[in-house]
Amino acid sequence: MAADIEELKKKVLDYMAKKSKFKPKMYFKDLCKADESAKMREIKKAASALVQEEKVEYWSSGSTTLYSLKGASSKETDTFEHD
Amino acid sequence: MIDTSMYKDDPGYNIQEKLDIPYDPTLADREYNPQKPMAGRLTDQGPPHYEQFFPEVIKKNYGKWLTHEFVQSGVIKYTSETGDLMWVVRCATPRLITTNLLREIGEIADKFCEGVCRWTTRNSLEYHVTDEGTLKDLIEFLNNFKHPGGSYKLPIGGTGAGITNIVHTQGWIHCHTPATDASGMVKAVMDDMFEYWNSHKLPAKLRISMACCLNMCGAVHCSDIALLGIHRKPPFVEDDRITGVCEIPLAIAACPTAAIKPAKVTLPNGKEVKTVRVNEPRCMFCGNCYTMCPAMPLADEEGDGVAILAGGKISNRISTPTFSKLIVPYIPNELPRFESVCKIVRNIVEAYSKGANKYERLGDWAARVGWERFFEQCQLPFTEKSIDDYRLAYDTYHTTTQFKWSSHTDKLMKEAGY
Amino acid sequence: MADLKKHDTPLLDELKKGPFPSFVDDLETRGKGGVQCCYDLLGQLELSYVHKETHWKHGGIVGVFGYGGGVIGRYSDAPEQFPTIAHFHTLRVNQPASKFYNSKFLNKLCDMWDHRGSGVTNFHGSTGDMILIGTSTDELEPTFYDLSHQFDMDLGGSGSNLRTPACCMGKARCEYSCLDTQAICYDLTMTYQDELHRPAFPYKFKFKVSGCPNDCVAAIARSCTSIIGTWRDNIRIDQKAVQAYVGGEIPPNAGAFSDRDWGAFDLQKEVIDLCPSGCMYMDGNDLKIDDRECTRCMHCINVMPSALRTGVDCGATILNGAKAPILEGAQMSTLIIPFIKMEYPYEEFKDYVDLMWDWWMEEGKNRERLGELIQRQGLAHYIVDILGREPIPQHVKEPRSNPYPFWKEEEVPGGWKRNLADFRARHLA
Ligand code: HEM
Ligand code: HEM
Ligand code: HEM
Ligand code: SF4
Ligand code: SF4
Ligand code: SF4
Ligand code: SF4
């Protein structure tokens, strides 16, 4: 069922806070573990909303995407695909 | 007719007002602060609503067109149920254009067509006019509109049973994986085929497409004639740099034939590094590894060149959409004018023009007369490279006793002494 | 301003000859006007013509804040010779659906791109975006700021995300169009902005919309979801106009064959006999179509656009999974939904998109296109289990010719757990 976006945002933030201690930068697949019953696209929407609210930082090479809590990481380069 | 309630969520929205304000070159420098990238940022607003750019005649007749006619190559006359008439003039562009030409395109639109123009999927430019006098003036103008070297800036044509503009990719002008150049080859081939660009004398429409490597950004695999850049040497592996610039597992995973294996080597300086090795006989020269890993370049002066595929189509008309088939496995890069590519394209087009029935697309003609006859009539050698050994290869095996006698069997018979 | 330096380009100069528009002349004219990077671009291209190898380095990651796509990094590997193109990145800009523009827009865009970049463009890239070729890393954010504030434009897709949707010009100009292609394209673009800008898919995904089976945007060859207009009722026939074609008053196929003498128009030979389903016939002087047998190939309508029109009960046929040959070989889109009404706000269609994307995101491997996932897990599985649709003969060209379907345990009465003792009680070992 479509989860409530505010609830999902909270779950994502909580999960990131917990995880952030030993892994500041997370793949999208990691974020999905914040709520295994939610659809991946809903988690994506929640994560994007958090980026808009500047609570979460977002970096993507086009094929690899990393999320981190605001201030938790510096820039990083990764893979090389951009077509 | 047009649902304006969707305009950027605001029915009163009018982009023209914004466009009336001259470009402010210092706005971003004043307002954008790299320390606070989100301040005042506009994201996810999408493109402007298309209807904002329609000419009046299209706004009025949207969905009401009754019929059309190509009054000459490159000129389409439309009739609406409202009684309105509209003429469209189609002209070629090389796709790669500068703001100089773009401004001129805008000036022509201002002069003849309420300032409006449109691009087609195949990179042609279209102007819309509503009276025959303006049409005549526009055509005359375009016929005299030339570059310093003498080529037309916007030549009229590209409709009906002729050759439309070549869709193509970047080539050496802007990409890191090309095996050939795109813009130059397109220019050479279209120069040679120009008589078919601005006439309706072929048996059906003929689409040529061009992509400069196997990635096929232009998706050429369903064209009547496809020109494709190919590599023929496996990639280098730069052991001393690979760990720094590339995620090795991604490069390994990228290879469609699983030709890349992890390896450890000792560099001349004694340092042991993780790297990869390519099982060269398995390499299909696709360049996927290089896309993932910059330490695996594969461009090579002698290895690279052009393959030609033919007989594909997209439209569902009469026969179903079909893939193009490999008919010339390799032609070296002949710069700057790709003479052999041009010659082969001409042979194919002329044989097709002579042999095909009205309405018959190139691939349908080849299938009707038989591919053995196709090779014969286009004067192309058949090589083992045209026999599929990739996935789904069996689909192309010839599982019947029905075939035609051709120069190929004649040769076999002679060799057998029959 | 440093001195303008033109490189010698004897090979490229050959590409100024001939009638087709010369990109060399265009770039050179701009160079002459004081834009060094156009001279450098030609200089480097000339070098590629000599070496027969590209002189662009493999990308490098550049972008604008908060987006994972829309910018393609590009660096010259001969920056000392060609300093003004040392960085020469590309921005993909989402085009307005079906690519109409006006001069106000073009002029202002030129002002912007002359200021922020090289003034070199592609109208358009193969996906449909406007492509602005050539600027430095520092100018990327300001260019995006200008585009979004002074033009209300946005970047297009690149990377593992939704690529910019594209459509034919449909009802704007074409009487064949069974769909409001632009409206659909615009709505999908706006609905899926997050998917377009922030990659989270296994690989790229494309929507393309053609108004009829002529498929002018090549949706069936190059989109993961091809939306192609069609109709359920009858082809509309104007018998008087048919006779006008027969009598030679209207040229066949809208005059598309005008430069060659193909003889007088022959309705039987050119239309009735070429109909792939053989569903047309003459009844006296009347042309008749057995519409239930018609496969809507468009041939007869293309030949006689003034006499025949598509039906009026219109919708779309949805096909899935086209892709260029890398990796699993080329695929054309395969028929999934024979007919779906496409009316704003397209809820039925979007429900299907949700099912499709949820599956692909869960199951797709890195760099696996939807078409490849369908092959790997099976078309039947996709249609029946994922989309919850009924299988119909239209889903295949012909039924399979091997008898090896996988039966599921629940499909067999009694399941697979059996009592061996009972079996052996009936059969001696
Ligand atoms: C009313 C009649 C037609 C008009 C106005 C028309 C117009 C166009 C235009 C403007 C394009 C460029 C595509 C775009 O930018 O939207 C195009 C491409 C195309 N047209 Fe048509 N067309 C018509 C009839 C046909 C017919 C009769 C066929 C097939 C028999 C056809 C097949 C195609 C195909 C396959 C493409 C592009 C294919 C590719 O990219 O390779 N069209 N057409
Ligand atoms: C594995 C497959 C592919 C790879 C690795 C790839 C890679 C690339 C790269 C590196 C560029 C940048 C060229 C530049 O510097 O401007 C590019 C451009 C582009 N690609 Fe692809 N590509 C692939 C397949 C495709 C396909 C199948 C399509 C479309 C059907 C496509 C559409 C485009 C477009 C529209 C551009 C912009 C430039 C142009 O139109 O030529 N790509 N691609
Ligand atoms: C798992 C796969 C298969 C097994 C275990 C199998 C086994 C057998 C056996 C045991 C026989 C002999 C039957 C007899 O006593 O006459 C037989 C006969 C035959 N099999 Fe198969 N078979 C298999 C697949 C196939 C396939 C795929 C084909 C053809 C496409 C095929 C074609 C034949 C033919 C033509 C005969 C002779 C039938 C006749 O007597 O006219 N078999 N098979
Ligand atoms: S076809 Fe290949 S070489 Fe050409 S632009 Fe695309 S990725 Fe680059
Ligand atoms: S070029 Fe293609 S086939 Fe060859 S090693 Fe690289 S990825 Fe594999
Ligand atoms: S796809 Fe059909 S509706 Fe769209 S422009 Fe082509 S012929 Fe017209
Ligand atoms: S659309 Fe095609 S199948 Fe249908 S009647 Fe016309 S020619 Fe026959």
In words, what does this structure look like?
The complex is a heterotrimer of chains A (83), B (418) and C (429). Chain A contains 3 helices and 3 strands, in the order αβααββ. Chain A has 83 residues and is of the alpha+beta class. Helix content of chain B is 28%, strand content 17%. Chain B has 14 helices and 12 strands. A 5-stranded antiparallel beta sheet of chain B has the order 1-2-3-6-5, with helices on one face. Chain C is 31% helix and 14% strand. In chain C, the strands form 5 sheets. A 5-stranded mixed beta sheet of chain C has the order 8-9-10-15-16. In chain C, strands 2-4-7-6 form a 4-stranded antiparallel beta sheet, with no helix packed on it. Chain C has a two-stranded antiparallel ribbon with strand order 1-3. In chain C, α2 crosses α3 (36-51). Classes of the chains: A alpha+beta (83), B alpha+beta (418), C alpha+beta (429). The interface between A and B is small, with 7 and 12 residues. β5 of chain B pairs antiparallel with β5 of chain C, so a sheet runs across the interface. The structure holds protoporphyrin IX containing FE (HEM) (3 copies) and iron/sulfur cluster (4 copies). One iron/sulfur cluster binds at residues 168-170, 174, 176-177, 210-212, 214-216 of chain C.
Task: Report the sheet with the most strands of chain C, covering strand number, pairing sense and barrel closure.
Answer: 5 strands, mixed
Helix content of chain C: 25-40%
CATH class placement of the domain at 166-232 and 313-411 in chain C: Alpha Beta
Largest sheet of chain B: 5 strands, antiparallel
* Widest sheet: strand ordering of chain C: 8-9-10-15-16
Number of helices of chain B: 14
Unreliable segments of 5+ consecutive residues of chain B: 1-6
Overall pLDDT metric of chain B: 93
The CATH homologous superfamily of the domain at 166-232 and 313-411 in chain C corresponds to: Sulfite Reductase Hemoprotein, domain 1
Q: Cofactors and ligands present? A: protoporphyrin IX containing FE, iron/sulfur cluster
Q: Biggest interface, which chains?
A: B-C, 158 and 146 residues
Major β-sheet strand ordering of chain B: 1-2-3-6-5
SSE order and pairing:
The complex is a heterotrimer of chains A (83), B (418) and C (429).
Chain A (H helix, E strand, L loop, with lengths): L4 H16 L5 E2 H4 L8 H13 L3 E5 L4 E5 L14
Helix pairs in contact in A: 1-3
Chain B lengths: L14 H6 L6 H5 L24 H6 L3 E8 L2 E6 L4 E8 L3 E3 H14 L3 E4 L4 E6 L2 H12 L39 H10 L1 H4 L10 E4 L13 E6 L8 H7 L2 H7 L5 E7 L5 E7 L9 H5 L12 E6 L14 E8 L6 H17 L6 H8 L1 H7 L29 H10 L2
Parallel strand pairs in B: 7-8
Antiparallel strand pairs in B: 1-2, 2-3, 3-6, 5-6, 8-11, 9-10, 11-12
Helix pairs in contact in B: 6-11, 12-13
Chain C lengths: L9 H4 L9 H10 L3 H16 L4 E2 L13 E2 L2 E2 L13 E4 L6 E3 H14 L3 E4 L6 E4 L6 H11 L15 E2 L13 H11 L1 H5 L9 E4 L8 H4 L2 E7 L4 E2 L1 H8 L20 H6 L7 E4 L2 E4 L9 H5 L4 E2 L4 E7 L13 E7 L6 H17 L6 H8 L1 H8 L33 H7 L3
Parallel strand pairs in C: 8-9, 9-10
Antiparallel strand pairs in C: 1-3, 2-4, 4-7, 6-7, 10-15, 11-14, 12-13, 15-16
Helix pairs in contact in C: 2-3, 4-5
Bound molecules: protoporphyrin IX containing FE (3 copies) and iron/sulfur cluster (4 copies).
